[in-house]
Amino acid sequence: MMKFSFVNIRQTCLFGYALLLSGALLAQNKDVPMKQLLLEDLSNFKPTGSNWQIAGDANADLNQENALKTSKGKGVLVNLPDKKNTSNLTFGFDHADMDLTLDFMMAKGSNSGIYLQGRYELQLLDSWGKKNPSYGDCGGIYQRWDDSKPEGQKGYQGIPPRTNASLAPGLWQHLEVAFQAPRYDASGNKITNAKFLRVVLNGVVIHENVEVTGPTRGAEFPDEKNPGPILIQGDHGPVAFRNIYYKTYGMSIPTLSDLQYSYGKGPFSSDTLKADTKFKVVQSGKTQDLTIENVPAANDYIIRHTGKLNVKSAGKYTFYTQINGFNLLKIDGKTLAPLAMTGTWDERSATTDLSAGDHTFEVLVAKRDSWMKPALGVFIEGADVRRMPLNTLSSLPLDAPVNPILINVEGEPKIVRCFIDFEKGTKSKRITHAVSVGSLEGANFTVDLNNGALVQCWRGDFLNATPMWHDRGDGHSDPMGSTLKINDVPNFSVLPTNTTAWPDSLTPEANYRGRGYELDATGLPTFKYSIYGTEVEDMTRPEDGGKRLTRTLKVSGSATNLYCRIAEGKDIVAQPDGSYLIDDKSYFIKLTNPAGVKPVVRTVNNRQELLMPVTTGNQISYSIIW
């Protein structure tokens, strides 16, 4: 069975194709999917202590140290250590190269760690709000240790995350890891160190191509060998895990052999090519590598490479092409990528079943457009094969590097007007009247001036304006940090009944009018607008060192059945301290209720909403904690 697809990858990698070449993007290929580690019991792990258990859910108190509670059920792995029970947890399978994704939840002040192969630790810690993370903070690659060295020098080679992308305790955080095991020669001598190809925490890349020269401190095994099991620390503090997926890879890789090429000269037309891909050969021969460098011309050429592709195990394999010019790809005489004109940013892919052993391989490239560079890239991915190039590195030249254009906050808040690309769930849109605000505390946010919505917030650096200002640009900028997507719907609406759906956009009856914004003494804006006959002043300010944003909406005037929507999500759960957990523990909302006014939690279209009734002279204030 063969499936074919086509996707534009220009936005995937603005600064060239290095990430695509590494094959470590952790993108899910549905044809060679990751395996889920079922958490119905502890049978997928080696025997361990009673501190480890399976639960239906976990809840960590935002304010209480090491407080994590569970509810009965399945699907969540929990560590609840005490003085007598502090066992580590070892997975029931070994791995060499692997990809791993999971969700985790830290209790306040808690500490844990994930050891790849039981040897190389990625630190888990409640690092919420820390400005300058170290190797010991969440996402850090922990230090190695040498007892023979003098005091103060025993620890070495710890690597901090690029930035602190940690969320608050009690929230589900997401971790993605692409790991490459060390390599050894036939005599067992190590020739390549273990490497974290890519680590992503809460959507932010925190490590890329980081080598580890040996086991980190506290490793289960002091030596290095392949394979080894994942180990999770159990002796430091409460932690919970869910949605554990993994993909392991073999150490043997597909190879090309018996490669030959045949070269012809143009010019040629697309109609001629589509009718017949035969051509007059002016040069041919054997070649060691699949490379466009076998072409002696820069343009008006056609070249066909043929050979044998050997795969070590049977299964589904996905082929990807990034080629400048007309091209096609065949395996065993079957066309996987039909003849088409593409650029290297146009990645084509096709999946087919292959038996173990040799298969015929053919790729044809015909280039006529002089503005394109000669480029030929063919990649392969399988159930036990991490995406890898079959071509030489020089056959798919990188684009000229682009110096990033970053907007940082220095000395005073920054206010930037630009497009913002907003994606949440299945919804995707470009917000054309966005204003992004960067604070000195590092808590940043975006407002849509077309409807008054607080669209998103993030902690850390401010904006990457490269897509907006490099070359011709497209007008948009991207947040530089773990971004909480909130919504892009109106803040206020009239709801005649409790089941009236919240509008996705403003209706004519809303009579919305933007009134601009004013800056306070610190340089932060208060946005003003009118809606449903009321006047609104919308002020969002960082608090608690940037750990939260507090939004205050002052409303003058009133309208019958007027509500303000505070939050929306899969679920909204009231907490003992009066706060609310929003959308599967994505963030907290802490409300300051006006006298005599109670918030409303309702369910509409299988989603929950937190609403506040609006009365005359009402002031609505709440904090977003993430």
Task: Give an account of the 3D structure.
- The protein is mainly β and 626 residues long.
- It has 3 domains: 35-249, Exo-inulinase, domain 1 (Jelly Rolls, Sandwich); 252-395, Jelly Rolls (Sandwich); 406-625, Beta-galactosidase, Chain A, domain 5.
- Helices cover 2% and strands 50% of the residues.
- The protein contains 3 helices and 45 strands.
- Strands 2, 3, 4, 6, 11, 14, 15 and 17 form an 8-stranded antiparallel sheet that branches.
- β37 and β38 form a beta hairpin.
- The longest helix is centred in the middle third of the chain and has 6 residues, at 270-275.
- Residues 1-27 form the signal peptide.
- One of its GO terms (molecular function) is hydrolase activity.
- This is DUF1080 domain-containing protein.
- Residues 50-245 form the 3-keto-alpha-glucoside-1,2-lyase/3-keto-2-hydroxy-glucal hydratase domain.
SSE topology sketch:
Blueprint: E1 3-8, H1 18-22, E2 35-36, E3 52-60, E4 68-79, E5 89-95, E6 97-106, E7 111-116, E8 120-125, E9 144-145, E10 155-156, E11 173-180, E12 183-184, E13 190-192, E14 194-201, E15 204-212, E16 228-232, E17 239-249, E18 255-265, H2 270-275, E19 283-286, E20 301-311, E21 315-323, E22 325-331, E23 334-342, E24 346-354, E25 357-367, E26 376-382, E27 385-389, E28 406-407, E29 414-424, E30 427-438, E31 443-448, E32 454-464, H3 466-469, E33 478-485, E34 492-494, E35 513-519, E36 525-531, E37 534-543, E38 548-556, E39 562-569, E40 572-574, E41 580-582, E42 587-592, E43 600-604, E44 607-613, E45 619-625
Antiparallel strand pairs: 1-24, 2-17, 3-4, 4-17, 5-16, 6-11, 6-17, 7-8, 7-16, 9-10, 11-14, 12-13, 14-15, 18-19, 18-20, 20-25, 21-24, 21-26, 22-23, 22-25, 26-27, 28-32, 29-30, 30-31, 31-32, 32-33, 34-39, 35-36, 36-37, 37-38, 38-45, 39-44, 40-41, 41-42, 42-45, 43-44
GO molecular function, one term: hydrolase activity
Protein name: DUF1080 domain-containing protein
InterPro entries: AL/BT2_dom
